[in-house]
Amino acid sequence: MVTKKEIKQSVVIAFWFMLLTFPIMVIKVNTIKNEVIFRWQALFWTGVGTFFASLIWNYFLRLKESKKRADIKDDVPTVHRLLNTPQFRTPFLLAVGVFFLAYPFVFPMYHTSIMISALVYVMLGLGLNIVVGLAGLLDLGYVAFYAVGAYAYALLNLHFGISFWVVLPIAAVLGAICGTLLGYPVLRLRGDYLAIVTLGFGEIIRIVLENWSEFSKGPRGIPDIPPPGLFGIELGQHATVIYIYFIVIALVLTTIFFVNRLENSRIGRAWIALRDDEIACQAMGIDKFKTKLTAFALGATWASLGGVVFAAKTSYINPMSFTIWESITILCVVVIGGMGSAIGVIAGALVLILLPEYLRAVAEYRMLVFGALQVIVMVFRPDGLIKSVRKTYKFERAEK
Amino acid sequence: MRWINILLGLAVAGILGFYGIRELLADPVYFLELFLGGLVRGSIYALIALGYTMVYGIIQLINFAHGEIYMIGAMTALIVASVLGLWGWHSAVIAILAVVFAVVYSCAYGFTVEKIAYKPLRTAPRLSALISAIGMSLFLQNYVMLAQTPEFQPFESLIPDFAFWEPYAHIITSVELAIIITTVVVMILLGMLIKFTKIGKAMRATAQDKIMSSLVGINVNNVISTTFVVGSATAAIGGVLIACHVGQINFFIGFLAGLKAFIAAVLGGIGSVPGAVLGSLVLGISESFFTGYFWSEYEDVFAFTILVIILIFRPSGILGKHETQKV
């Protein structure tokens, strides 16, 4: 399976990487204390690590090539096949339903709270999935709309005492307006510019929030944001968390419903078609600009809703919650989960957010792993963990 | 539409010119300082922007990891300089070795990044390559952060304050002078490389038509690798120079510098080498005036606003050609 030539090649690559990472991995300098530490063991591990990584990399690259050459059409992923068999589908959905319903009552508050953040990411991921996965527009400033929602709730509540339930629709509209305003100038252009402009917009929003203290209270942030009300009933701390948990569950279900319906609607099909071939789409009479703008605005709407929930949950927000890392994390959820596939995004969000929370030891390597995973997924499995399934029609000859 | 654009441009230029002359007359020294500061800034942007624009010209990819290559250049220089400094070597030798190592290592990183993250995706949709580039950038940042330190590290300038320059140092320091001179030299060398050498000719051919150039016997893979290596080398020089100028570096400096340089490349017309230089100088100088006369805390906002304005009114940049999309 592994030829001699490949082993030789991997040894060369291992030496190359040992040389390449030498200054940064081995030498650790501290220019303040003026000391230098040599970590020779890092050199050894880099060599061994790259040797095996290179073998695996080559193996998978060959696998991919042979698959391409044989022109094997990937069949429907197991998850989808299972979900489409009724014997499995009903008990599975029931089990998931019971699990999520019982979750806050079985597990302590801390775990519920973590689950809420993961579910907020599910929502954000599904929203970004519309933009990146379906419409193929790379949005790197998604967190800006998230911030719009969070600050909309915090500020409207602070100045006018407007409650959560009233802000929710206002924030949704606000998000859509912001999305349209930002999308308007840049969506006419080719896709890569959009990535940079949205990245810039995300940073602009954060810088403005940090510096315009009269408006946003600056880096100190806004404390004491009230949790959502329940017909004026006073809830205890634990009860509030459970209540927010169910609100998020409801919002996630609504999102799944909407996304599912959108995907198979006229506009959803237009998004997917635009992603695959713009020129052919325009020839078919699809208004490219308007369709893209809709995707962008809808994505922003969901981010904004997520922001409102986030503000209500943490009861304190400051600009530091809305850095570029947040955008990148959401993008990772979509990319690694599977672009365009709702199930993939949900699974991706739960895995990518919950895993680092519980494995504190590896939490500091989170971003490193995310970065590496993005490259690996793009090279070997561009469809992500669970790929989306396109609607296909089969014509069968009628029996005579 | 065209006339409106020209009229708007003239109006903006008129207002800016009026205020510029007024400020110049009010305080010429401050004006000059800002101008030279902008020139220095622009030179650094130019050194980074070249890598973006050359790579974009050849494979139509925004190399997001380019800012990280620049950061790795600065980091390597810091490491080499401090190790040699501890061993008590002469400062001139340290300066030369630090720059050499920074350039060599940045080139090696640029080369490797291309082989891992972009080469397997050459025929894939553009979105895939772009996401892969972002992943690479994220990976490199965190790799340096975890292997070194997340804190800012002071960087002792490798360029001494020359004694003969003392009388003029209040207007422009010797480090700033060195930055401008180095940039000019690098630009001339690069221009000659692209214009007169065989590999430069191959680069231009590949940028025009990849398939055709491979038909006439150009090894396209080698040309793309060379482009990454050359771009990385200039970025590394920029990294070392800015580290000397600012005096401290950390793992995150590549992000913003890379973004600004990209904006500069778009401003000049992405894909065009003279455009990148021109765009960088325009961006650097206008940023410098903006921070000097208006709000310094909104410096980055200003750069992005410029980007959006260009993209609306002239997406092909100052020197870029308008491109029609082909099927």
Quick description:
The complex is a heterodimer of chains A (400) and B (327). Chain A has 400 residues and is an all-alpha fold.
Q: Could you state the order of secondary-structure elements of chain B as H and E?
A: HHHHHEHHHHEHHH
- Put simply, the count of helices of chain B is 12
CATH C-level of chain B: Mainly Alpha
CATH architecture of the largest domain in chain A: Orthogonal Bundle
- Distance between the first and last residues' Cα of chain B: 27 Å
Order of helices and strands of chain A: HHEEHHHHHHHHHHHHHHH
What does this structure look like?
The complex is a heterodimer of chains A (400) and B (327). With 400 residues, chain A is mainly alpha-helical. Chain A has 17 helices and two strands. A two-stranded antiparallel ribbon of chain A has the order 1-2. In chain A, strand 1 and strand 2 (35-38) form a beta hairpin. Chain B has one domain (34-313): ABC transporter involved in vitamin B12 uptake, BtuC. In chain B, 76% of the residues lie in helices and 1% in strands. In chain B, strands 1-2 form a two-stranded antiparallel ribbon. The longest helix of chain B is centred in the first third of the chain and has 32 residues, at 28-59. Chain B is globular. In chain B, 47% of the residues are buried. At the A-B interface, helix 1, helix 2, strand 1, helix 9 and helix 15 of A face helix 3, helix 4, helix 5, strand 1 and helix 10 of B.
What are the SSEs and their pairings?
The complex is a heterodimer of chains A (about 400) and B (about 325).
Chain A (H helix, E strand, L loop, with lengths): L3 H17 L1 H5 E4 L4 E4 L1 H31 L7 H7 L1 H21 L2 H26 L7 H19 L3 H23 L4 H21 L1 H4 L20 H27 L2 H11 L1 H6 L4 H27 L9 H14 L4 H17 L7 H15 L20
Antiparallel strand pairs in A: 1-2
Helix pairs in contact in A: 1-3, 5-11, 6-11, 6-14, 6-15, 6-16, 7-8, 7-9, 7-14, 8-14, 11-14, 12-14, 15-16, 15-17
Chain B lengths: L1 H25 L1 H32 L6 H21 L4 H28 L7 H22 L5 E2 L19 H23 L1 H11 L1 H6 L4 H27 L1 E2 L3 H16 L4 H21 L5 H15 L14
Antiparallel strand pairs in B: 1-2
Helix pairs in contact in B: 1-2, 2-6, 2-9, 2-10, 2-11, 3-4, 3-5, 3-9, 3-10, 4-9, 6-7, 6-9, 7-9, 10-11, 10-12, 11-12
